[in-house]
Specification:
Blueprint (H helix, E strand, L loop, with lengths): L7 E3 L2 E3 L3 E3 L14 H9 L5 E7 L17 H16 L3 E6 L18 E2 L8 E4 L3 E4 L4 E2 L2 H20 L4 E6 L4 H6 L14 H4 L1 H14 L4 E5 L14 H15 L3 E5 L11 H10 L3 E5 L4 H9 L5 E4 L1 H5 L3 H7 L27
Parallel strand pairs: 3-4, 3-14, 4-5, 5-10, 6-9, 10-11, 11-12, 12-13, 13-14
Antiparallel strand pairs: 1-2, 7-8
Helix pairs in contact: 1-2, 3-6, 7-8
């Protein structure tokens, strides 16, 4: 039997295989509340060992995109509870990804009273889709005060407690892809001159304080993190000290004993590749589980697991278009291509209507 489809452990959990469903924004949460359609979507894909949910905001301020879910209200917690119950009944474990969008947002997508926040008042290049008025330029965000930083950490902590109440096995801190946590790490978006800006020790401080607070609230076996070294998504250019900075992060995260680091490589979608040396550095320095993602097929997933390059392999688009991906990969059946036109549109089309093997 192949390693990919054999049982494994993640912290205190036993997973039914080594395959992880990557977090994928799908914009189906009307009014930012998980619904019955989302229950169906996640249940269909619960043959994965681990599901990591779509990016979910820990606070009203973090809801940058239209129709993304939150986990800060009782209705949201109740909606997610229906999803975790259904996924657990099928044998999968499930972590919720906390995605605070920071500057990748638009006021038209935020509830009344919420603010577009970031480390510094630096707008991202490009535009943001809004249901109300279509595409709009990214606004200049408000630079966070130290009080904003502390209240945001408090929001992450409450969201972590809410996630446990909703039945999640853990949380993933989205510190990748140009969202708020990564906005603090990267020098182009963090131009602060206080204790949260300047050196990598200062730029990493917010991320590490969020991780520390989440661990204190729910335990290190329930906290993972996603990083995208060499990722350029959402106006995050490459810079010279990147390898050194992410090596520092690997060491710091290892010291905290998080259950996993999820390294994402966006080169299959056109970004610069994450050098093998960086992946090897994380493998060497981080002693708990390493998840790799980025353009995997079954053969490469098996090969990297056997070679010991990682503990788990995460895939996104193949799971999107093939709810029964585990069955298809393990039997060599054909894999369907996703319909990109329906990635972010409301309703079941291109979401819950992909066929399974008969």
């Amino acid at each position: 039997m192949s390693l990919l489809y054999s049982k494994t452990v993640l912290g205190l959990l036993t997973l039914q295989n080594h395959l992880v469903m990557s977090p994928m924004t799908r914009n189906r949460a009307t009014d930012n509340i998980p619904n019955a359609l989302m229950v169906e979507y996640y249940t269909q894909r619960a043959t994965a060992g681990l599901i990591i949910t779509e990016g979910t905001s820990p606070s009203p301020n973090g809801l940058g995109y239209p129709r993304i879910p939150g986990i800060f209200s009782p209705a949201q917690v109740a909606g997610w509870k229906r999803i975790t119950d259904a996924v657990h009944a099928k044998g999968a474990k499930i972590f919720i990804q906390f995605m605070h969008c920071g500057r990748i947002a638009h006021p038209l997508n935020l509830p009344t009273g919420a603010r577009v926040l970031a480390p510094s008042a630096v707008a991202a290049a490009g535009e943001m889709y809004t249901d109300a008025e279509g595409m709009k330029p990214h606004p200049v965000p408000q630079a966070m005060t130290e009080a904003d930083i502390q209240s945001t950490i408090t929001e992450f902590v409450q969201a972590a407690k809410n996630a446990v109440m909703a039945g999640f096995d853990g949380i993933e801190l989205h510190s990748a892809n140009g969202y708020l946590l990564e906005q603090f790490i990267r020098p182009n978006t963090n131009q602060r001159t206080d204790g949260y800006g300047g050196s990598i020790e200062n730029r990493a401080r917010f991320v590490l304080e969020v991780a520390d607070a989440a661990i204190a609230a729910i335990g290190k076996d329930k906290v993972g993190i996603r990083l995208s070294p060499y990722g350029v998504f959402n106006d995050m250019p490459l810079y010279n000290a990147m390898e050194t900075d992410y090596t520092y992060l690997a060491q710091q995260l290892n010291d905290r004993g998080l259950v996993y680091i999820h390294l994402v490589d966006h080169s299959p979608m056109g970004a610069p590749p994450v050098p093998d040396a960086i992946k090897a550095t994380f493998r060497k320095l981080f002693k708990r589980s390493l998840i790799l993602s980025g353009g995997y097929d079954a053969a490469r997933a098996e090969s990297d697991l056997i070679a010991g390059k990682c503990d788990l392999v995460a895939v996104g688009r193949p799971f999107l278009a093939n709810p029964d991906l585990v069955a298809r990969w393990s039997t060599g059946a054909a894999v369907k291509a996703p319909d990109m036109a329906t990635f972010y549109t409301p309703g079941p089309k291109g979401y819950t209507d992909y066929p399974t093997l008969t």
